[in-house]
Amino acid sequence: MSHEHTDLGHGAPVRIAAISLAVTAALLVLKLVLGLISGSIAVLSDAVDSGTDLAAGAAALISVRLSAQPADEEHPYGHGKVETISASVAATIVGIGGGVVVFQAVRRLVGHSPDIDVVVGLAAVLVSAAANVVLAFFMRREAKRSQSMALRAETTHLQTNVVQAGTIIAGLTLVGITGAKVFDPLVALGLAAYMGWTAVGLVRIAFSEMMDTALPEHDLAVIRDVLVEHRNELRGFHRLRTRRAGAVRHVDMHLLFDPHLTITDVHPISDGIEREIEERLPGTICVIHVEPDDGRHAEEFEALVRERTQAEAARE
Predict the structure, then answer these.
(1) CA distance 288 to 273
(2) CATH class of the structural domain 11-210
(3) Segment 236-248 mean pLDDT
(4) 306-315, pLDDT tens digit by residue?
(5) What's the rounded Cα separation, in Å, for the pair 157 and 27?
(6) Which of 3, 89, 116, 204 is spaced 20 to 30 Å from 301 by Cα?
């Protein structure tokens, strides 16, 4: 079935990614300067992480802009897969940043640890934490609305920054209270471990999309519900295939109709089902192939209809 698809609204994701990049750049400068002044390896480690944030944010901004481009002859499924690259870049950068932090923290533990200005260090981290909380809130909301994997990965990254800030605040507070400077590199090592865990999570997200994993069960249930609602017109369906490319869901399937009906009869029904699926799952491109029913898939569809009918009766 041929149909046109409207713009999926990528203006807001691009704006929030650009704002994130600007805020991250400002925080990098702040933490680097105050980290050097305070002498805290934990604050400097957070500055290193802000550097990884800056690179990952740039990758997210570029990928969101590229994925917003419409499909063309060379890219008939659009450019959404570029967001997978962004998540992979973010994972790599976070992992490298964690390695740098480990090196510096271990060097402080086995060697000389300079004096730490706790007040200056705390000031840098508190400002950073507040900025990341606000930014993560708006980015998470936009990632959920746009279904952008790049923004989702960047939201996860920002949330780790908030956790990191809380850990650094606790560590610097302990240094200030006890005078034991060992807490500073220990906190840095904890941050490095958390960065590694985050990198693994981002890799899993990217790998799932690269492998064209099917849509989650909730989305599949929505598709099946639409088909069941047309049970008086359909004989069944088969070859339901789904995947995601960036913010776009792709759905294709074969619908089975009474063999006595003509293409003219079933075409409007098929188009209507496509529209319903795309409306209930925003950002979806649904393509349906129609076939005459030969009875091979009737039992599966009848079982699905019975299951949904019983579920509706139970709710009533």
Answers:
(1) 9
(2) mainly alpha
(3) 85
(4) 888 887 777 7
(5) 14
(6) 3
